[in-house]
Amino acid sequence: MVGPQGEAPGGEPRPGGTRPPAGTPAAAPAGTPAEGPVQTAPSPAPSPAPPAQGPHSTRRLVRAAVLIALGTVLAGMIRVPVGVATATPVQHAVNVLAAVWFGPAGAVTVAFLISLLRNLLGLGTLLAFPGSLFGAALAGLAY
Q1: Burial 32-57 (b: 16+ CB within 10 A, else e)
Q2: Fewer CB atoms < 10 Å away: N or C end of the chain?
Q3: pTM for this structure?
Q4: Which residues pair with 7 in a beta bridge?
């Protein structure tokens, strides 16, 4: 407790001879830890988790990649010429599987990537795009 003239409890005068303002804690002597709660620097906010694409998104991605690979390779092996176009039964089967597993949007995405790869590799015609995309969309909507 502080004395009337700014004296410390042992009767020794405080430096400056004045009392600290009301509500201010007394300063700790040199070499002793300060009293009161220890204040630490605020911890950085945790980084947000990446947005999930749904349950088992890696598994879905791998399924789509396998379908794209099978559709690209096997579509060139079984072909049915129809005028200027060629029908590929493997592409239709892949479209149906993709429609069941991924829905209409996923099936159209898989069909687009297969058609793109087939055209880049010289295995298909430009008519692969409208045929496979509309086929995949219809298969997805029908399911």
Answers
A1: eeeeeeeeeeeeeeeeeeeeeeeeee
A2: N
A3: 0.59
A4: 13
Is 94 in contact with 112 (CB distance < 8 Å)?
no
Query: Would you say 98 and 107 are in contact if contact means Cβ atoms under 8 Å apart?
Result: yes
- What's the token pair of residue 137? 């969309």
Token output for 71: 């559709």
Tell me the per-residue pLDDT of 3-30, one tens digit each, with 9 for 90 and over: 555 555 555 555 555 565 666 655 555 5
126 phi-psi bin (left φ>0, alpha ψ -120 to 50, beta other): alpha
How buried is 16 (Cβ within 10 angstroms: 0-12 exposed, 13-18 middle, 19+ buried)?
exposed
For the stretch 41-55, pLDDT in tens is: 666 666 665 665 666
